[in-house]
Write a structure and sequence with these properties.
It comes from Eubacterium ramulus. With 306 residues, this protein is mainly beta. The protein has a domain of 166 residues. 10% of the residues lie in helices and 57% in strands. The protein has three helices and 21 strands. A nine-stranded mixed β-sheet has the order 3-4-7-10-12-14-16-18-20, with no helix packed on it. Strands 1-5-8-11-9-6 form a six-stranded parallel barrel. Helix 2 packs across helix 3. The mean pLDDT is 95.
Length: 306
């Protein structure tokens, strides 16, 4: 059974307000709270380390897997290893994410490694949301690591979201793409207070016709700090694009490091980076419609991160 705090966290990170359809594995305070498998999707606990293996049969379509994690125990620190085996020709949605509610004085931390093995012509949409809450002095810490291995003709879309309450996070994502594979990453991030967020992406385009599009949109408020380090490596005739678009406010700091490495004559790679404050005329325009300056800023930020 899950308490009300844990249920609220589930709603925030996985949009779950009850038992989800399809396969799922819900983890609460270091223990499995609920699990369900289907005829096409199996979930197996690892025996050597903490974590699970998710097996999706070839040809599986229109099915989903939910694997959220919630922590409501101050002082808890855990590390999990989850592997996803996505069969050839499948088309699935995977919803992950972690929510921490820390009302104590000790830090609460969840670290995890997710590895994706995507077979030929498979399609995956992966949603990972991070959320922090609680009025304790202890920090809410999340350090996700992601490895993606994509076979020929496969496709993966990653939606990485963190817009509230996480004090410290280091996100490290690496991907290897074979011929014709395509990776799309959309990161949305907001930091406030004294929070720190580091995002690192390294994508190797190894096969002919492979492509990647990695875009981050972020807002840094108060005294927070952000670092976006994105590297695309073209090892074959391929196309790659990485972009950082950020709004800076108050006394925050942002470091953007877009990197391109071309190791093939026909590697077409592009990077873009833009950091700036909210334009004054935007605020004035909204204030003429009856909003306060604070409300105008909030509307602009919400629209930017949508």
């Amino acid at each position: 059974m899950m308490d009300e705090i844990q249920k609220r966290l589930l709603a925030e990170v996985a949009d779950l307000h009850g038992v989800p359809e399809g396969a799922y594995n819900i983890r609460a305070n270091g223990q499995m709270a609920a699990r369900n498998t289907t005829a096409n999707i199996d979930i197996v606990s690892k025996t050597d380390v903490s974590g699970i293996d998710i097996y999706i049969k070839p040809g599986t379509v229109n099915e989903s897997v939910h694997i959220p994690v919630v922590l409501s125990q101050s002082g808890m620190k855990e590390m999990v290893y989850n592997d996803f085996h996505i069969g050839e020709g499948s088309d699935v949605v995977i919803v992950a994410g972690c929510g921490i509610d820390n009302c104590g004085d000790q830090d609460a931390e969840h670290d995890g490694i997710h590895r994706f093995f995507i077979e030929k012509n498979a399609k995956v949409k992966y949603v990972e949301k991070h959320y922090g809450a609680g009025d304790g002095k202890g920090k809410r810490i999340l350090n996700p690591g992601t490895e993606v291995y994509m076979e020929e003709g496969s496709y993966m879309e990653m939606e990485m979201v963190q817009i509230k309450g996480v004090d410290s996070t280091v996100r490290d994502t690496k991907a290897e793409l074979a011929a014709g594979a395509k990776l799309v990453v959309r990161e949305r991030l907001m930091t406030h207070g004294d929070q720190n967020a580091v995002s690192g992406y390294s994508v190797s385009l190894n096969g002919e016709g492979s492509s990647a599009d990695v875009i981050s949109r972020s807002v840094a408020k108060d005294n927070s700090y952000q670092k976006f380090d994105s590297r695309i490596i073209g090892n074959a005739p391929c196309s790659g694009h990485t972009e950082c678009d950020a709004i800076i406010m108050d006394k925050a700091r942002i470091l953007a490091i877009p990197q391109l490495e071309a190791n093939d004559l026909d590697a077409a790679l592009i990077h873009e980076a833009a950091i700036g404050k909210i334009a004054g005329e935007q605020i004035i325009k909204l204030m003429t419609l009856g909003l306060t300056e604070e409300e105008a800023e909030e509307q602009i930020v919400n629209g930017f991160l949508r």
